[in-house]
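Subject: for your reference before the review

Hello V.,

The reviewers asked for a structural picture of the protein, and I figured it would be easier to keep everything in one thread rather than splitting it across files. Below is the amino acid sequence we used in the manuscript, unchanged from the supplementary table.
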Amino acid sequence: MTITRLQCFVEAAKCKNFTQAARNLYIAQPNLSRQISLLEAELGVKLFIRANRSVRLTPAGRYLYSCIRDLPAAIEAALEQTKAMGRATAGRISIGVLEGQEVNDILLTRIRKFAEQSPAPELLLERNSFRNLRQGLLNGHYDIIATLSFEVDSLPGVCHRSILRQPGAIVINRKNPKSMREELSLVEMKDEKFVSISPEESPGGYNSLIKQCANFGFKPNIVRMTSSLESLLLCVEAGIGVALLDRNTRLERSENVRIISIPNSDPVDLSIVWRSNSNSPLLNNLVAALSSDRDV
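And here is what came back from the structure prediction:
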């Protein structure tokens, strides 16, 4: 009986669909079905009742799920925390950076300065999505992440500091006639089609859009919800709809869109976030370097 086999069972029980479970685990559906069949053979009992497009747990399956549903996540977290301890001992730090953000002049410059002044730390950098950054920080895959401030409220047991504050902005394709206006208020967008990050990917980002539009007296007509920030940026570039973003994305350099700051809007911070129980001196030094407001 392997961790992979138990993970397949738990995900399938949660989704009640083998295809979706396999997609969530980034494996082929036949492989997931085989792992569950092997688990059933090993236990000598059926765990699922298969239907055409869905599955449901047998009484034995329900009992097993109630006992081990948190086990795969707990094992993954324990393994990642162990890796994090190993990185700290070896003088390594894993840094996760939000995809689509233009961070070269701020974050990467400070990282480079820190690396020059510190005793040969090994910095592991990786871009990722909202959800993967959250999960990676909490399970120890990342020691520190750089993400947007509305993500911080949903994270338990973390510390955070702002390293860049930007006004909220309307991002609109240049083929839209409204993009030619000198100034643009959010209330003028009430009849436009919107693209948004999905609430599963970023609850804070989705809620921020709803709240800002409500402040101007309308509910946005969301025609596309994306599972990543990069997909959202592509949708705006393709003219599928307008979006509300900060001014620190790669679209600042795109000729296909116009970015217009929203007057009196709530600012959006690019924040660094780390676990409050981290006690690595190297990480503390990096936090100080990244949150410094001195020019570097």
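For the response letter, the relevant points are probably these. The chain has three domains: 3-69, 77-163+271-290, 169-266. The domain at 77-163+271-290 is CATH 3.40.190.10 (D-Maltodextrin-Binding Protein; domain 2).

Happy to draft the paragraph if you're swamped.

O.
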